[in-house]
Amino acid sequence: MSAPVVDVRDLRTHIVTRWGTVKAVDGVSFALAEGETLGLVGESGSGKSMTCLSLVRLVPRPAARILGGQVLLDGDDLLARSEAEMQAIRGRRIAMILQDPMSSLNPVFSIGMQIREPVALYHRLRGRALTARAAELLAAVRIPSPWERLRAFPHQLSGGMRQRVVGAMAIAAPPRLLIADEPTTSLDLTIQSQYLGLLRELQRQHRFALIFVTHNLGIVARMCDRVAVMYAGRIVEMGPVRHLFTRPAHPYTRALLESIPRLGVRRERLTAIEGQPPDLSRLPAGCAFAPRCPSVMERCRVEAPPETAVEAGHVTRCWLETSPGASG
Amino acid sequence: MLAEPAALARPEADGAAPPVARGWRLPLVPLGIIALFLVVAIVAPLLGLPDPQEQSLRNRFKPPVWEEGGTWAHALGTDRLGRDLLSRIVWGSRISLAAGVLTVLLASAFGAAVGLTAGYYGGRVDAVLMRITDATMSFPVILLALILAVTVGPSFTNVVVAIAVILWARYARVIRGQVLTLMQLDFVAQARIAGAGAWRIITRHLLPNTLGTLLVLVTLQIGYVIIVEASLSFLGAGIPPPTPAWGSMIAEGRDFVTSAWWVSLFPGLAILVVVLAFNLLGDWLRDTFDPKLRQL
Amino acid sequence: MSALLEVEGLTKHFPVRRGLLGRTTGLVRAVDSVSFSIDVGATLGVVGESGCGKTTTSKLVLGLERPTAGAIRFGGENVLTLGRAGWQRYRRAVQAVFQDPYASLDPRMRVGTIIAEPLVINERIDATSRRRRVHELLDLVSLPARAADLYPHEFSGGQRQRVAIARALALSPRLVVLDEPVSALDVSIRAQILNLLRDLQARLGVSYLFIAHDLAAVAHMSHVIAVMYLGQIVERGPADAVALEPRHPYTQALFAAALPIDFDSPREEIALSGEVPSPLSPPAGCRFHPRCPHAMARCATEEPVLRSTAGRLVACHLY
């Protein structure tokens, strides 16, 4: 690809808890080009949210620490920047949308005041010009009657509208990278549909790279160009969405796809994944998925598999792929 | 917070229990102080101390042992009537601790009952009970005790009653708040679905889940009650003489602060240390028991 | 198949009170004349978005709220008109499993006590029989017997849901209301619990009222699906019919938004304009008409009734 907007190399973040050190992000690498969307899929403890926090260096200190790796934003390593420099970058070059719009918005300030803030900061506008730009942003996220809405307060808006306001603030700069962490999980289905359409439209316009964190594979299929599946702090499979869903290489991906009920596919039983999501403070040696893997081999319990290529642009961490004559 | 549930803080895969969080960094100093005072208060009669009420004009105003003229016979000195200060402080601790614990137990039991009822039933019951609670909270404790002292005469019982009669309101408020939060949780609805009635839900589901908060509040309040009792005794509306009480001891030494400073200082120090210990313990309890119901 | 539960014209209005005297200034029409039935050993799936009334409906069925109007017939008799004994019998026969596995179990009680509680409240049962029943129930949900002595916090979310299911089965209910039973669980655990629920249905012949926003899960679990919008049922019929060939415009939009992982036959997305109106003042005529892509003049004035079309019931003037 042409010079990526985001290039993450071997990112490592550990968290010290009273039950031991947790390798929340354990050597995560990926790259994203302009206008490209990466879906980050995983369950609790997979490390997807901590990865996002690490990208903007907002990991909860002092317990969590980014130990190593590089996060290159347009070639610029964010992990080497000072905190003051990071503050200038956050919001401006990297923006984030979180799951709960009610906590992202300050309940005591009007929408207008909250949107004006980043706009004033990034574009040095004041007065009428500032308000006009704020209204433009609201219109860009398809909020009806934007000029009137500027005076409204968060509690007067529905969940879907609030999430749009958060979106408007996120694209105020506009950013080079937008990280959306489960932005639609708390929204109704039909509202979710509208919102995803809006995000795609905004991305087409502004060409930012988008990292979309979700556990919903349906959203990934619709929104993402590539998808990375995380398990126990590592990316176990990554590749173009279509390839991954039609020819999954990793047993976890396969098992996930098989365990999800699908409209139109009548099955008597869903193929459940045995066991529980891993205890990150007590990971087994070898592959973290081994205890639950239906295709587990002896080697898996001893040695953690490296990243290998399945085909162009599609990688996985699994001994099945590395051994000659592996079953597909 | 980001979307990822904190499985990191709760690694319970395969049903294994997280190591015990309590018993970890116990507040040894406050606990030690409280234990010391409690033990001393309980075994006071066995300690072979001089009679706290024995007067001896010959021994008036003896200074503490480390001062010139002091003796080990009266290690902390004597007061204006020659009574041994150490002995009076030890015996006074029985009063203060008894007043503190008894009052708080009474107030918390009644207050919790009111809070549980108001929170569970809601509606008019809640409105009425809370109005009564509000009115009670705004009544000054000391004034009430003074009135009682003037009309009925000062006594230990009056002190306990006067304070408890107003203190319960604080518990009622806090417990009611907690109950309102608990009522939102599904397990209360589940109890109803299983057929449980009000009594069962309140006693078996709501009350046990408020015990943590109650414990914190109780501990923090003991210090407060001890100070109030001391204040009342200082004003002459508390424990009447000749029973030794820290507050009245301070009052007795009031006129001699420059000459016989030990008479007022040591009882004052005793109050300070005990109250501080209870407050520190209460703080630690609150930090440990912070109502994260999921982690209990 | 005989009907276990028949609900007819079920209605629940909540008055909105203002002022010191509590005058009623408005009415929230949470559930408005809803009718459906659940057969023995079958599952009725209810879908809809916020404000549609599905939670209130489940509370009415559970007896946690009294309806403003309508009838609930269980095994033939209208339980709302029965005396105290009959009503208690009904309440025991209908149990529930809720969404949040962390809030539905009392953190201060051991699992064994939690599961046994319905038994303790409703039956005179000695300790030995109680213990035996608890072990039976734990076995039904594939948890080890020693789980009875542990506390909820020692279990994962999926395991806690199993405990909740065991508790719901303690009184051998005929109907279990499942309100989002797997949405708070990890994706890889959901299949386990859904499979368990289906197995239990096959073994015990229990019926389910299954409420979820995961449409694929509802379609998988249900025999019949009812789609609710602003307090009313807009479509109701066999699960496959409603899910794969929805007729009502709202159902079509809803299932189109369900985002299948299917590259070969991509579903057309139907974007609905606007937001869900408030149940305080639902639109006149068909409640969906302001957002409906097929709205006609008639829709603004005349409320459609459920009519049989293409093997299911639809409330829409298009049919």
Domain module count of chain B: 1
Q: What gap, in angstroms, lies between the N and C termini of chain B? A: 21 Å
Tell me the distance between the termini of chain A.
27 Å
The CATH architecture assignment of chain B turns out to be Orthogonal Bundle
Calculate Rg of chain B over CA atoms. 24 Å
Assess the beta-strand content of chain B as a share of residues: under 5%
Classification by helices and strands of chain B = mainly alpha
Largest interface: A-C, 44 and 43 residues
CATH topology group of chain B? MetI-like fold
- The rough form of chain B would be described as elongated
**Number of helical segments of chain A?**
13
Summarize the structure in words.
- The complex is a heterotrimer of chains A (328), B (296) and C (319).
- By secondary structure, chain A is of the alpha/beta class.
- Chain A has a single domain, classed as P-loop containing nucleotide triphosphate hydrolases (Rossmann fold).
- Helices cover 34% and strands 23% of the residues of chain A.
- In chain A, strand 7 (177-181), helix 8 (189-206) and strand 8 (209-214) form a beta-alpha-beta unit.
- In chain A, helix 4 crosses helix 5 (127-140) and helix 7 packs parallel to helix 8 (189-206).
- The two termini of chain A are 27 Å apart.
- Chain B is built from 9 helices and no strands.
- Chain B has a single domain, classed as MetI-like fold (Orthogonal Bundle), CATH 1.10.3720.10.
- Chain B has helices spanning 28-43, 85-121, 123-137, 141-151, 156-184, 186-193, 198-235, 246-252, 262-288.
- With 296 residues, chain B is mainly alpha-helical.
- Chain C has one domain (3-314): P-loop containing nucleotide triphosphate hydrolases (Rossmann fold, 3-Layer(aba) Sandwich), CATH 3.40.50.
- In chain C, helix 3 (111-122) packs across helix 4 (127-140), helix 3 (111-122) runs parallel beside helix 5 (157-169) and helix 5 runs parallel beside helix 6 (187-204).
- The mean pLDDT of chain C is 90.
- Chains in contact: A-B, A-C, B-C.
- At the B-C interface, helix 6 and helix 7 of B face helix 2, strand 6, helix 3 and helix 5 of C.
